[in-house]
Structure prediction request, 95 residues.
Amino acid sequence: MEQQLFDDLVSSLKEAKKISHGESQPSRRFEVSSTDVKSLRERVGLSQSEFARLMRVSVKTLQNWEQHRRKPSGPAAALLTIVSKAPDVALKSLE
Prediction:
């Protein structure tokens, strides 16, 4: 490993340590909000089994999302966003 790259990594780790101990502020912060799956499902008027079938996931996975034990990721998160923004179009397309 090149010395400059190694020095940059060490510097980054020291900065991360200061941030985690509250000694420094991060240069930027990202907030990712998650969809409230249960309220979305209720808003579109589907049962858990119907919504799970629509999302192509098991009912157990849907229940984990609704009870915040798991968070949808990847394509499932994108699909939930589409359902929340344009439920009529999404429901027609997925049925």
